[in-house]
Amino acid sequence: MPNLQKLQEIKTQLDNHQPPVTLVAVSKTKPIEAILEMYELGHKTFGENRVQELEEKYEKMPKDIEWHFIGHLQSNKVKYIAPFVQLIHGVDSFKLLKEIHKQAAKNNRTIDCLLQMHIAEESSKFGFDEAEIFDVLENADFEALQNVRIVGVMGMATYTSDSSQVKREFDQLRATFEALKSRFFEGQEHFKEISMGMSGDYELAIEAGSTMVRIGSLLFGGR
Ligand SMILES: *Cc1c(COP(=O)(O)O)cnc(C)c1O
Q1: What value does the mean pLDDT take over residues 135-142?
Q2: Most buried among 50, 83, 208, 217, using CB within 10 Å?
Q3: How far is 120 from 112, CA to CA, in rounded Å?
């Protein structure tokens, strides 16, 4: 059962924030009925992290839903979501970016992407470091990728109760965002997203300048 009261509470909080913060309701593993309950209240942005599950949900659900892909995406699966995905949060290799461009072009679309940065202490989490992101954007082949649009960065903080560490990691992502903006995207309005913050740390993320939070268990219950 989705917690619709929590949804309203968080939406109000995010809408009233200056600048406003986008809520991506993370619906992975949750049934269509639960997602529809939120949709009927007017929430239309959902995040999934499995290609096959996302495809199935896309096919069965109203077409004005904005689907975000939030997890680790394998290059060979991009083709399945390229026709409809609104934003890919976790771009973590140049190879993946090239494949997204290729599949977007096949579908006559431009796909918005976030570059994932590794900010956590855990080694298991995917992502670039700052120097690697610079390498991607300076790569001679990057210019040719006309069917992808980099709209910002994404990161996941360490899973810890040490809020000063989490804050430090979010601050680092924000600083990288600012560095990229001034180096590569000056005056480009579309480069504006910092996707950070989940159920356990979204308030810290917003304080640190998040523009997009990805919240699952707080809205849908545990998985
Ligand atoms: C599952 C997931 C979330 C949501 O996590 P919760 O703790 O349930 O809010 C956010 N981001 C990514 C990348 C995820 O895989």
Answers
A1: 95
A2: 208
A3: 24
